[in-house]
Amino acid sequence: MAVFTPLSETQVADFLDRFDAGSLVSLEGVPAGTENSTFFVTTDRRDLVLTLFEQGDHEELPFFVELLDYLDEHRLPVPGPLHDREGVALHSLAGKPALLFPRMPGKFPKAPNLAQCQALGDALGRMHKVSRYFPGHRPNPRDLHWLLPMHHKVLGYLSPQDQTLMKDEVETYQGVFGAAPELPQGALHGDLFRDNTLFEGDRLGGIIDFYNGCTGDLLFDLAIVINDWATDADGQLNAKRHDAILSAYQVRRPLTDAEREAWPMMLRMTALRYWLSRLLVVYVDPPAHDLTPHDPEQFRSILLARLNHGALPLPEVSE
């Protein structure tokens, strides 16, 4: 979240007139973030978040609206976008696509405890259980089909050892996932790091920032979560956090035999996905704004830890 396009109180007050959300009391730009302009909006009736979309394919925004509407209707802790009096959510403001959301309570956990991990696993399991029936479709933009061409763009910036590592991994993924049976599919968050959640103490207040949302392997989403939430500073998995998330998740949606077999490789592929995407930002496609890119080394370390130490045993589902 950040502010790249400033807005006046008059602009926002006029915008609010379209909605049944009250009258503007205060407007505050949110300084942190990487892609979109974000504002906290307070009316005489509620607290809201206003987002202007600065980058990306704006034609895909209706997918995100439909996904959030769907999850909100199924009582998932997500910010279902506000619709105006005509039933329309997506508007234009200051020449940019704009959405208005309820402001969800809490802050993200820098060092999640076991209760927070359990709450996240439960919510993700609930989400994946219902997201299998979401009618929308947006192919996963960061799966194996993306890795295949994109990894060539960064090889020239890597050491010979890392070039070999990346090429060997991508080749391995082709062999494993190309011949594997189809894994359970559904709608994904696509980027469920801890800073995309909000907690009040141990209670999960919200899952936010669905702008990497897509449809694809549910296991892909779960592996992203474990690689962030259950990984220690040295890249190795933390068994207690790992089991707290996966045990709670499987109460809602038990993993299939095919998913259990693919799990160690999915952890590796999602680690390489972030190593590659961060390398691309550093060397190939820097951000449009003056922002500090994330360190690619973090996910190189995670990938090496998965290679050297493997995956932890998956918790069994109690009958």
Short structural description:
This protein has about 325 residues and is α+β, with helices and mostly antiparallel strands.
Descriptive overview:
It holds the Pfam family APH. It is an enzyme of class 2 (transferase). This is Homoserine kinase. It is a single chain. This protein has nine helices and nine strands. The chain is α+β, with helices and mostly antiparallel strands. The protein folds into two domains: 9-102, Phosphorylase Kinase, domain 1 (2-Layer Sandwich), CATH 3.30.200; 114-309, Aminoglycoside 3'-phosphotransferase, Chain: A, domain 2, CATH 3.90.1200.10. Helix 5 (160-179) runs antiparallel to helix 8 (257-283) and helix 6 (218-229) crosses helix 8 (257-283). The model has no long low-confidence stretch (mean pLDDT 94).
Task: Annotate the secondary structure layout.
Layout: H1 9-16, E1 24-29, E2 37-43, E3 47-52, H2 61-73, E4 91-93, E5 96-102, H3 114-131, H4 144-150, H5 160-179, E6 185-188, E7 197-200, E8 203-207, E9 214-217, H6 218-229, H7 239-252, H8 257-283, H9 297-309
Antiparallel strand pairs: 1-2, 2-3, 3-5, 4-5, 6-9, 7-8
Mean pLDDT: 94
Name of the CATH homologous superfamily of the largest domain? Aminoglycoside phosphotransferase (APH), C-terminal lobe
CATH class call of the largest domain: Alpha Beta
Please tell me how large the radius of gyration is.
20 Å
Largest sheet strand order? 1-2-3-5-4
Major β-sheet profile = 5 strands, antiparallel
The percent range for strand residues is 5-15%
Number of domains: 2
Total helices: the number is 9
Residue share in helix: 40-55%
Question: What would you say the CATH architecture of the largest domain is?
Answer: Alpha-Beta Complex
Shape: globular
Question: How many beta strands in the DSSP annotation?
Answer: 9
Terminal CA distance reads 43 Å
* Oligomeric status: single chain
Helix/strand order, N-terminal first: HEEEHEEHHHEEEEHHHH
Find the CATH topology of the largest domain: Aminoglycoside 3'-phosphotransferase, Chain: A, domain 2
Derived from helix and strand composition plus strand pairing, the structural class reads alpha+beta
- Poorly predicted runs are none
